[in-house]
Amino acid sequence: MKKPEINLSIPRFKEVDGHFHPAPFLLTEEMFGGVSIEIAGGEISELVGKPVANMHTHDVPEIYLLFSPEKGGAKIQVDIEEEEFIVDSPATIYIPAGMRHRFITLEAIKGSYCLGVLLNDNH
């Protein structure tokens, strides 16, 4: 039986096109022998009204995961191309590769998270 791997060096901060600061990644392609997804993001209660990125694109699809300790405890505005969506937690949002997007935290109680899952194809 293969020994499990544990990685304690998270988050790993990586530059992401369109983002104002390096993004905190909890899972990267380089971990665990090359996984095909990456997960970035974190707690958002201190980001209310503070966009973390300009409109930008990724070469791969992305799924946002929005959750909070209480239903409706977080609300984000998701701009995709020319459309604006207001989303309450818990929610998932799928953004196809190449679509311009960003999110802005509108409301978030402590313990609210927004994670971006990048669906890389490294095969």
From TrEMBL:
Keywords: Isomerase. InterPro entries: RmlC-like_jellyroll, RmlC_Cupin_sf. One of its GO terms (molecular function) is isomerase activity. It comes from the Bacteria. This is Mannose-6-phosphate isomerase-like protein (Cupin superfamily). It comes from Sporosarcina limicola. The lineage of its organism: Bacteria, Bacillati, Bacillota, Bacilli, Bacillales.
